[in-house]
Amino acid sequence: MIKVAIVEDHKDIRESITNLINATTDMHCVGAYGNAEDFMEAFDSIEPDVVLMDINLPRLNGISCVEALKPKRPTTQFLMVTVFEDNDKIFDSLCAGATGYVLKNTPSEQMYEAIRDINKGGSPMSGIIARKVAASFHKSTPNPDTEVLSKRENEILALLSKGYRYKEIADLLFLSTETIRTHVRNIYEKLHVRSRTEALNKVFPRGGTSGKLSLFTTFLRL
């Protein structure tokens, strides 16, 4: 059973999510809290596998809560569940230690899959959030290294930087996994690198917006 904790200040939403979780056969709610402080006090005793974390909480916000707790128990996965779609909160959450970000209007079945995915090592994001992340890459300072890459190669590199695996990229782009591998090999050759990490560090060096994106990638399972 996946042990899920909920941190949400709105009582009706908190109770609704609790009921949804407990209605499944493979997960159960080990605690639901209306503020970060109560959750932090109970954190060590309940040992959740996945935490559904709101951002806009009274007093200490959800991002600061994640930042404080993630180092204490790295195996716990924090999934931000919020109404916020702005880029700063997305990146701040992920850099604080969250490994997923979905919106509160996400349908229940997709929420279930997000919890299962993050528990198995994935980094789920709502579609609109993923598009915002991709758009941020396009808005960042142009890097001359990317000029040697084709449009498709740049697209694949951006998806790699968000933590997508080869098969996931293949599904998104309607290509075969082997085709993705070929593109990745071409990317390495053109950038004169030998790994995904080297490629991302070269294209998205630290500093400015690109630095924030580079930092963001270090918190995802590549």
Explain this structure.
This protein has 222 residues and is α/β, with parallel strands linked by helices. It has two domains: 2-128, 3-Layer(aba) Sandwich (Rossmann fold), CATH 3.40.50.2300; 140-218, Winged helix-like DNA-binding domain superfamily/Winged helix DNA-binding domain (Arc Repressor Mutant, subunit A, Orthogonal Bundle), CATH 1.10.10. The protein is built from eleven helices and five strands; from the N terminus they run E-H-E-H-E-H-E-H-E-H-H-H-H-H-H-H. It has helices at 11-22, 36-46, 62-69, 87-96, 108-119, 127-139, 151-161, 166-173, 177-191, 196-203, 208-218, and strands at 2-7, 27-33, 50-53, 77-82, 100-103. A five-stranded parallel beta sheet has the order 2-1-3-4-5, sandwiched between helices. Strand 1 (2-7), helix 1 (11-22) and strand 2 (27-33) form a beta-alpha-beta unit. Helix 3 (62-69) runs parallel beside helix 4 (87-96). It starts with a strand and ends with a helix. The model is unreliable at 206-222 (pLDDT under 50).
